[in-house]
């Protein structure tokens, strides 16, 4: 399937035809990004950028992740601290200094409150999966956790805060669970 992005760009610029063969068909060379006249071989437009996705998904399943996107979606409940890059372990001699210490290290870019909030989100997700709760309840519990951490109401164990917020979220959504269930 041919991309028309190069031809459309050429038409907008007014250069969509060969000056020697104005009625000739133009062929797109995808590797070079050129529009070429089929009559004389003249490159009419060069360096066109194809803005289509690089990969195609050949699976018929709709729920698979798009391979043209990288990483998880940003968690809007965090303060932008969940966007991190992890450096893999070094394997060669260039990865270590003369004392054998790794040259490149991952730095803590997430605040401790965001990290504990993320741990609480994970604990809520685990608990909700175990007792088969829907995503709406998990989202409400996560918003409650965010309020708790923003207002600095509670400090303490992650599981206790997660359990309390999940208990309240279940009650607010009309599907109350006992303490024992959670």
TrEMBL record:
Q: Which PROSITE patterns match?
A: ZF_TFIIB (PS51134)
Q: Name one GO cellular component term.
A: nucleus
Tell me the domain of life.
Eukaryota
Subcellular location per UniProt equals:
Chromosome
Q: Is tRNA-binding a UniProt keyword of this protein?
A: no
| Residue ranges of domain TFIIB-type in the record | 13-45
EC numbers, comma separated: 2.3.1.48
InterPro entries xref list: Cyclin-like_sf (IPR036915), TFIIB (IPR000812), TFIIB_cyclin (IPR013150), Znf_TFIIB (IPR013137)
Question: Catalysed reaction per UniProt?
Answer: L-lysyl-[protein] + acetyl-CoA = N(6)-acetyl-L-lysyl-[protein] + CoA + H(+)
Q: Name one GO biological process term.
A: RNA polymerase II preinitiation complex assembly
Q: Which UniProt keywords apply?
A: Acyltransferase, Chromosome, DNA-binding, Metal-binding, Transcription, Transcription regulation, Transferase, Zinc, Zinc-finger
For this chain, one GO molecular function annotation is: RNA polymerase II general transcription initiation factor activity
Say what the protein does: General transcription factor that plays a role in transcription initiation by RNA polymerase II (Pol II). Involved in the pre-initiation complex (PIC) formation and Pol II recruitment at promoter DNA. Together with the TATA box-bound TBP forms the core initiation complex and provides a bridge between TBP and the Pol II-TFIIF complex. Released from the PIC early following the onset of transcription during the initiation and elongation transition and reassociates with TBP during the next transcription cycle. Associates with chromatin to core promoter-specific regions.
What name appears for this protein in its UniProt entry? Transcription initiation factor IIB
What is the scientific name of the source organism? Amphilophus citrinellus (Midas cichlid)
